[in-house]
Write a structure and sequence with these properties.
The structure is a homodimer. By secondary structure, chain A is α/β, with parallel strands linked by helices. Chain A is built from 11 helices and 25 strands. Chain A has helices at residues 19-27, 50-54, 67-70, 133-152, 156-162, 172-188, 218-230, 272-276, 321-339, 375-388, 392-408, and strands at 10-15, 33-39, 43-45, 64-66, 77-81, 84-88, 93-96, 101-103, 106-109, 113-115, 164-168, 202-206, 233-236, 241-244, 248-251, 254-257, 260-263, 267-269, 286-287, 293-294, 297-302, 307-308, 354-357, 363-366, 371-374. In chain A, strands 5-2-1-9-21-20 form a 6-stranded mixed sheet, covered by helices on one side. A 4-stranded parallel sheet of chain A has the order 13-12-11-17. A 3-stranded antiparallel sheet of chain A has the order 6-7-8. In chain A, strand 6 and strand 7 (93-96) form a beta hairpin. The radius of gyration of chain A is 23 Å and the shape is globular. The interface between A and B is large, with 74 and 74 residues.
């Protein structure tokens, strides 16, 4: 970077503008610091609704905001679109693509996680995951093209494979995807096709463990399972997937022919641990100290999905947006305390609850003592998600999109873009 | 195709679901025919607002609709996502990708046009055009990344090249792009950047001819030029571009360093003339007969941007949406007449007028005798475009997007997707 961006005050570099990184920036407003926020994307993404982009319910721009626009009123923050390639903790510099470096007094690493295949990276082309906007538009394209190809296919076996959608992993993302794809096939699409009956599409949710939504209370898992089955989703338990190919999956020793497979079964942290030479768990998550600093580097914080830390009761803090935000807030408080020459208490995670939507009329919410399910839970889920979106415009846009889906079965973003059609020219 | 889709009634195949093809389908409602509508995209695109997607004002889904959704209430219409590879006019079959064929009694070719480089196809990577949604998101990415890279660039010459935007061709698309990019740079982006002043960005509109908006009356061209200059656009006349590279353009014998170049200077028709062995003009447009059939093939109609035909006064019918729609309506009428054993009168084009927006407060409208410009013209332009959008939802969405831009300088779709960041995995 140029010297003109090297400030006189305490320099903070924050890597990653997800929930954790952005919250850190917000909570440092007015502090005597100068912040550089680096992300390899130009947008902050509201990941909890990403599955709705993948299923054509929402448009990409409804759940993503330009990072620098969010921080336009903060002259103390410089936003950079750049890819971090490493950290020189001795010289206190972050290395970015193009050979530039960003000097820091305090570093906050909030670089998130990515889906992982447990040693089967070769499955990725056949079973893409869902973490970025591009993942979502890729899945949307695959799902919509499967129906298009089925409409053209006269071979019944091939048509059946095109109309079989497999989701691997029955956590919140897997459950939400399965429910929404079932609704897409059974409610939205039937009047649009002539040669196929999209209501006959199979949606198969495969879970290696014994129940769906393992992070929720037992009774809510049971309810979620019944709701999924009401939507026509087939759920298979206790059968880990042993193979993914272009033609389908193998699980429980049998082969299921399916042209669309979605991976929702596991994540791996960003390479933050490698950059920092820090201890990490099997999923690559940095084991941070109780003040969220990296062992041996009191000037480096790491937060969010890229770290692991024990929560109350000893179980790990879950990789969800509220946890990342709490950590971001804590880091901002700690930096402020240090600048005043004070110490901060260790980080304490407060679990607010778990939410998952199951189709457009049902949800489950686990607040611990209070457990909700069904239509009321769905309304709370919907209002909470609209509330957490940023800005009136996007709240309005998402509310309108949902209104249209719920009243008219009309999904506004059924676009197949990129991919099959040649991009650079319409005709060769 | 399978035999199950081969109907007993008069079979019509329509290739292309743009304004012309879709209008033909709409106007054939209730006729004793069975229609197959083929498009290589799954969506109908409202091209007149495509430049607003390219400049981050509108989201892709606000100006595109799934074709089969638009025709869900028409059991007589089968929609196919397929690429036409040729036409066997002897056997009366359309050939599509995958080796399938579509038999027809009447064929309607409405396959549009694509931007063209007048024998300089090698310019395309450096000066992309604007005809498809992918073109628009590609341009959007390039424009937004230019500002991002400028923010990181310390070399002043390179920074200036990053902040120079060249638009080649001053027809409606070029004028609209130039005005909107100038507003983006001068109104929307300034508060978001720290190292650069986006108001210093140069927007250069290069026109080989003697004036902007050559299809409009002289006085409106003059007004449009003044409006563009008020927005800070530099306009260069009478200087054809002789070179496009990754670093800039050469025109009028001088080199202009620019990292973003947009091509809005010419089109070439689809390969319909080749498929049909039909006479065509230099731009590849089929020379159709007065009843819009292809010479020698009375059962084949061709309409829209892929044909050329003389309008009233002998000048060619312009390549605009209303012309394509009139032709689609005419073809539907002719098919209905033929099925009744009657003849139809030759096609007569009625020119309603030309419209172009110049930034967010001004437009020019040439109705022939009535000429409008300025704020009133802008309001008519805006209302007309919202009216011609399909469906309440998109009208609402576009109106909200424009409201936000006009009251808050906030563009809702400033997303950089695909391209630079790796798509398949966040980390190598």
């Amino acid at each position: 970077m140029t010297t003109e961006s090297a400030p006189a005050s305490h320099r903070i570099v924050i890597v990653g503008a997800g929930f954790g990184g952005l919250e850190t920036v917000y909570r440092l407003a007015g502090a005597p610091v100068s912040i550089t926020l680096v992300d390899r994307r130009n947008h902050h993404l509201f990941q909890p609704l990403l599955y709705q982009v993948a299923t054509a319910a929402l448009a990409t721009s409804e759940i993503a905001w330009p990072i620098r626009y969010l921080l336009r009123g903060r002259p103390d923050v410089t936003t950079l679109l750049a890819t971090v390639t490493g950290v020189d903790t001795t010289a206190r510099r972050v290395l970015i693509d193009g050979g530039d470096t960003l000097p820091y007094d305090t570093l906050v690493v909030a670089t998130g996680a990515r889906h992982a295949y447990f040693g089967h990276d070769e499955w990725e082309p056949f079973a893409p995951g869902l973490k970025t906007l591009e993942d979502a538009t890729t899945l949307r394209r695959r799902i919509l093209i499967a129906f298009e190809d089925a409409e053209r296919e006269s071979d019944l076996a091939r048509r059946a494979a095109l109309l079989t959608f497999v989701i691997i992993g029955a956590g919140p993302t897997g459950v939400e995807l399965a429910g929404t794809i079932a609704e897409l096939a059974h409610d939205t699409l039937p009047p649009d096709f002539r040669n196929i009956d999209t209501r006959k599409a199979r949606v198969v949710l495969i879970e290696a463990g014994p129940r769906v939504l393992a992070g929720f209370a037992d009774e809510l898992s049971t309810y979620a399972l019944r709701s999924l089955e009401d939507l026509g989703v087939e759920v298979a338990f206790g059968q880990p997937v042993t193979e993914c190919t272009a033609d389908g999956v193998v699980f429980g020793g049998r082969k299921l022919e399916a042209k669309t497979i979605i991976w929702a079964a596991g994540v791996r942290a960003s390479p933050a641990a490698e950059w920092l030479g820090a201890p990490a768990d099997r999923a690559g998550r940095v084991s941070v100290l109780p003040d969220l600093t990296v062992p041996g580097h009191p000037d480096v914080f790491a937060i969010g999905d890229t770290v692991t830390i024990a929560g109350p009761g000893g179980s790990p803090v879950p990789g969800i947006a509220p946890a990342a935000k709490q950590q971001g807030r804590y880091v901002a408080q700690t930096i402020r305390a240090r600048l005043r020459g004070e110490k901060n208490v260790p980080f304490v995670y407060r679990h607010a609850g778990n939410l998952a939507q199951i189709g457009k009329r049902s949800a489950v919410i686990d607040f611990g003592r209070i457990k909700l399910r069904g239509a009321l839970a769905w309304w709370i889920w919907g209002v909470a998600h609209i509330y957490f979106l940023i800005g009136l415009r996007n709240r309005l846009a998402v509310a309108i999109s949902w209104l249209w889906i719920y009243t008219r079965q009309q999904r506004g973003a059924r676009l197949i873009t990129q991919g099959r059609a040649k991009v650079s020219n319409y005709w060769p």
